[in-house]
């Protein structure tokens, strides 16, 4: 089943709700627990980069639904997710940090050792007369690992965002002066 166009986000969300095992999709619980997976050393801790990314996910949890975009060599994938999903960190797999929805239909895996910074931008939309709000996770060569756009209310026109989400985004952008630079591991 494929969802195309601006209304696709609404159809995707409805379909996700229908197949989800939860009784309601309107009231989403917060998932702030971090699971650390390890087999080699019981006293190991997440790296400084992983800790900073976990802190960012916690700060961004009120941004609501995010349209995650990854552009590959000859392909583009877009999907909807949230920063308030549960977080799993696997040290044995080279510091792989995962953001996982309760129904596991959304999983984002980031190699924390490759992250250099997170940037925040407000820019004009390519189509339409409104602004978009974009978060980018970047490597040290300034290449984009993944982008996340604040999702507009799919029952409204593009550019009509859910209450409070733009203010939260702008607050994070101002707090970090447009970017979060990650520590060395």
- End-to-end separation: 41 Å
- Assign the CATH architecture: 3-Layer(aba) Sandwich
Number of strands: 10
What strand order characterises the main sheet? Answer: 3-2-9-8-7-10
Tell me the structural class: alpha+beta
Q: How many alpha or pi helices?
A: 3
- CA gyration radius, whole angstroms: 17 Å
As for the number of domains, it is: 1
| CATH topology title | Heme iron utilization protein-like fold
* CATH C-level class: Alpha Beta
How would you portray this structure in words?
The chain has 185 residues and is of the alpha+beta class. It has a single domain (31-181), classed as HemS/ChuS/ChuX like domains (Heme iron utilization protein-like fold). The chain is built from three helices and ten strands. A six-stranded antiparallel β-sheet has the order 3-2-9-8-7-10, with helices on both faces. A four-stranded mixed β-sheet has the order 1-4-5-6, covered by helices on one side. The longest helix has 12 residues, at 8-19. It is globular and about 45 Å long. It starts with 7 loop residues before the first helix and ends with a strand.
């Amino acid at each position: 089943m494929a969802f195309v166009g601006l209304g696709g986000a609404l159809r995707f969300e409805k379909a996700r709700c229908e197949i989800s095992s939860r009784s309601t999709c309107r009231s989403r619980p917060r998932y702030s627990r971090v699971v650390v997976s390890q087999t080699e050393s019981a006293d190991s801790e997440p790296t400084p980069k992983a800790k900073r990314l976990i802190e960012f996910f916690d700060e961004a949890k009120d941004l609501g639904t995010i349209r995650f975009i990854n552009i590959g060599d000859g392909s583009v994938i877009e999907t909807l997710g949230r920063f308030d999903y549960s977080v799993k960190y696997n040290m044995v797999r080279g510091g792989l940090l995962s953001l996982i929805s309760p129904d596991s239909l959304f999983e984002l895996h980031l190699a924390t050792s490759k992250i250099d910074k997170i940037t925040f931008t407000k820019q004009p939309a390519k189509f339409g007369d409104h602004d978009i709000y974009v978060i980018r996770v970047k490597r040290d060569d300034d290449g984009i690992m993944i982008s996340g756009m604040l999702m507009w209310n799919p029952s409204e026109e593009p550019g009509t965002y859910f209450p409070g989400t733009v203010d939260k985004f702008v607050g994070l952008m101002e707090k970090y002066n447009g970017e979060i630079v990650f520590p060395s591991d």
